[in-house]
Amino acid sequence: MSNSTIPGSDGQLRCRWCAAAPEFQRYHDVEWGFPVDDDFRLFEKLSLESFQSGLSWRTILAKRENFRKAFKGFDYNKLARFGAADVERLLQDDGIVRHRGKIEAVLHNARVAKEISSEVGSLAAYLWQYEPNGSAIVTPQSASQSTESLALSKDLKKLGWKFLGPTTAYAFMQAMGLVNDHVEGCVTRLKAEQARSRFKRPT
């Protein structure tokens, strides 16, 4: 067993971080690192990464269903129509993180996402342009950002996106399968790689 893996509840080795909380193992095994092409799931993750700023992912994961309900399944077409009254309503929702700046940022970003989707065809097609090529892959979990995450955050910022730096962008890329950052020896690494090999990149 390497320093980067730890036995899970079934005795099989996994990325060490998934032992930090009981609910992390399932998230690690079935979500983290598996490719996603659903626009609303991608927007959800970008939004939740913003909400996580200054907090732990465990806090956000525990509230994720509440976030989904409050933010209409992260359908950015619906959120783009939210206004000041909706912000005030969301600030009263104790099931989510009640931070005015982050709530307003998600609603603003929904309008940007809608524009991107209209121009490119889908938010997924836009985001998957930033998938690293094979020669750019580094040792798993050895970096907190990459050339591609820097480019993605820079371009989104140019388009008006709020609360997304290169480190947050890289965490998003790890989670949504744009990179397979499961460590060597992790039981889920091969499963994620097989999913990525079968995945049809959105265009």
From TrEMBL:
Instruction: Please provide, alphabetically and separated by semicolons, the GO molecular function terms listed in this UniProt record.
Output: DNA-3-methyladenine glycosylase activity; metal ion binding
> Which protein, by its recorded name, is this?
DNA-3-methyladenine glycosylase I
Give the UniProt keywords, A-Z: Metal-binding, Zinc
Where does the source fall among the domains of life? Answer: Bacteria
Q: What are the GO BP annotations of this UniProt entry?
A: base-excision repair
The organism is: Duganella guangzhouensis
| Cited Pfam families | Adenine_glyco
Where, in this chain's numbering, is Zn(2+) bound? 15, 28, 182, 186
